[in-house]
Amino acid sequence: MGSSQLIYGYLWRDDRARSHSFEELLAMASLWAQGIRRHGNYSGDIALLTNVPSEIRIPGLATVPFDATAFPARNSRITLGWSAVPYGDYDQLLRLDLDMMAVGDVGPLFATDDRFRVAPSDLRIMDRRHAQMLVSPWKLIGYAATGRWNTLGVSSCAYSSRGRDFAAHHTILAETTARLARRAPGRGLHEQMYFNYLYLTGELQMQPYERTQVQHRDHRLTPDAAIFHYPNVSERSSKMQAAMELAGRVPVAGRSFAK
Predict the structure, then answer these.
(1) Rounded to an integer, what distance in angstroms lies between the CA atom of residue 166 and that of residue 154?
(2) Residue 47 sits in which domain range?
(3) What number of other Cβ atoms are within 10 A of residue 228's Cβ?
(4) For residue range 135-181, what is the model confidence (pLDDT) as tens digits?
(5) Is 160 among the domain residues?
(6) What 8-state DSSP symbol labels residue 56?
(7) In a domain, 80, yes or no
(8) What is the tally of structural domains in the chain?
């Protein structure tokens, strides 16, 4: 690959999946890559880690083989399988979910120091979908007393490390995933829970993006808007397409978009 920056995502073929077909995922990945190139002001490498590299043909996008069967728990593949990412070839890496559309310059999303950059969440850090299930009841009481309970959490939809810090950051994520998964087997834990646990405890130094940079809802083309996120499956592809068209038509605060 060879350039100093990499934006990457994950696409697994699982014909048992009920939420969307492989063809729908391919269409989403194509929109994702187009948005990064057209409106992200980005000329570096883009890659998909996938279990079916021979079945993906998207212009300007490389594939990296990823053996999903090595990680049976789908919700921990990303944290446990981090070593498949070719991080040693890059100065900066940015991971984006495929249900995200670049609408502005993605450059400010790349980590520039040893902190783990991560998307902000619209949910409290102690929401059940975040850290609550991983914290003991007596610690929950303590966090509630300090007001930490009401702090907004982070989202695993977008995050970045420098190449030199990638292994250290992701080793902490992987070890935390393995430790907490053993503590609460069969509870349907998700990678986002581990992110929020580490944000809560400070075991991994995180710096969330500004809320206007990565927007999950009430999408507005603010001057620093970089990513619109569409986590709801309903009408996802059509909304991503509409966002890309909007970004191409509307200049924001003197910002110009490549056509």
Answers:
(1) 18
(2) 5-241
(3) 26
(4) 776 676 666 666 666 789 999 999 999 999 999 999 999 999 888 87
(5) yes
(6) -
(7) yes
(8) 1
